[in-house]
Amino acid sequence: MGSEGPPAVTIHVTGFKKFHGVSDNPTETIVSNLQEYMKKNGLPKGLILGSCNILETAGQGALVPLYQTLQSAISGKDSESSNSKRIIWVHFGVNSGATRFAIEHQAVNEATFRCPDEMGWKPQKVPIIPADGGISRTRETSLPVEEITKTLTKMGYEVMPSDDAGRFVCNYVYYHSLRFAEQNGIQSLFVHVPLFLTIDEETQMQFAASLLECLLTFG
After folding, report:
1. Which CDD domains match (predicted)?
2. Which of 169, 215, 219, 217 is nearest to 192 (CA)?
3. Which residues contact 62 (CB under 8 A, 6 or more apart)?
C-alpha cells in the first residue's frame, strides 16, 4: 500500500582479500564486520543487508566465483530479499594512495594490470569483455553518484566522485558487475576507500553504514 513507504532495498556487499603491496586490505575488515556493525547500530527501515562476500583479488582466474556471487543476489533463494523491489551491489576496494573515499561513476572495458593479480595474471590493454567492443568502452552506474557524494559530504565524510576506477582488479570486477546489473535489472556501485592508516577503521565503518543508508534514498 502507498502508506507503507518505499519498497525495501536489498544491498549485497563485497570487499577484497590482500593483494600485492597491501597485506591488510581494509575492505576485508569492513565487509566482514558490516552485518554485526549494522545490527548493533540498527538497520534503517526498508534496508535489507544481503550477502557480504570477500572476493579474491584476481581477474580472469576468479571469474567463476565472482559470477556465482553476483548470481546469488537474484536467485531468489533468500526469501527476505525476494520481497525487495530493488537490489544493489556495493563493491568496496582499496586505493592505498587515497586520502578520501571515492564513489566510482564508471568502469572501462580495459584490463591493464600494473602488477600480477593474486593468481599471477598480468594483462596489458586487454578488453575485459571482448564482445562489448574495444578497451575504450565504458559502463556507467545507474545510481546518482554526484547526489550520493554530496549527501555523504554533508554528513562530514571526506568523499569525492570519480570517473577513473583504475585498470586493475577493482575496475575489472566493477565492469563485470555493471554489465550483470544492466542485464538483470539491478544496480551496482563501486567505492574506493583509503587505508586504515589514512582514515581509521571506525570512521570507515560509519562511512559504509551511511553509504548504505544513502542508497535507500537514491535509485
Report:
1. Peptidase_C15
2. 169
3. 55, 56, 117, 119
Model confidence pLDDT, tens digit, residues 68-93: 999 999 886 444 544 557 999 999 99
- Integer CA distances (angstroms), 70 to 41, 73, 121, 181, in order: 27, 6, 22, 9
Nearest to 36 by CA among 17, 49, 18, 27: 49
Q: What's the pLDDT score for residue 4?
A: 56
Map residue 51 onto helix, strand or coil.
strand
Which pLDDT score, from 0 to 100, does residue 2 have? 44
Return the SS3 of 7: coil
Q: Does this model's pTM top 0.90?
A: yes
**Three cell numbers written together for 35:** 552485518
Element containing residue 65 per DSSP (H, E): helix 63-72
pLDDT of 6-18, one tens digit each?
678 999 999 999 8
Question: Tell me, what amino acid is at 189?
Answer: L
